[in-house]
Amino acid sequence: MSNTASLANQLLVAVPSLDDPAFSQSVALVCQHDSNGAMALVVNRPSDMLMGELLQQIEVRTENETLRMHHVLQGGPVHIERGFVLHAGEAAWESSVALGNGLALTTSRDILESIANGTGPEQSLIALGYASWAPGQLEQELADNSWIVVNADKQLLFEVPIEDRWRTATGRLGFDPIQMTGYSGRA
Question: In which family does this protein belong, per the annotation (predicted)?
Fold first, then answer.
């Protein structure tokens, strides 16, 4: 990655021809990208687990029925038992990392307790698992036209309904992604 700019805080948007079941029509926020590889959270793939079930598993109570009915996201195929909270605002929790652009990633229980009792960040999403790439792997996938890079923003991450995030992200490119061919040519 020595001659490639970091993609941290960018969205990877799967091209229509990407047929890997883990990433087909996915949108992933790159949280880390350096010479050691890359790590991202898929932000548009709901899991079968509801927040109420997750909170119950970690013995955190909430009276918020709307919160209990929110789906936990499938953040990616790696370490699907690990939880991540992507949120707007300060990285003020026990285990938080500021990502930039007003975003932070937290992995500690204290943020879930705060969300459950209504004192957590106003904008957040909870995911289990993450996506990762070995050094040079993401760069190769970009060269192979598997992903399109789009600027990340809080509106797309937190306000656009989960099922609309891929189309919204691709729509920002100015064309319908379904019109993209499944191959690339060389002149």
Answer: Belongs to the UPF0301 (AlgH) family.
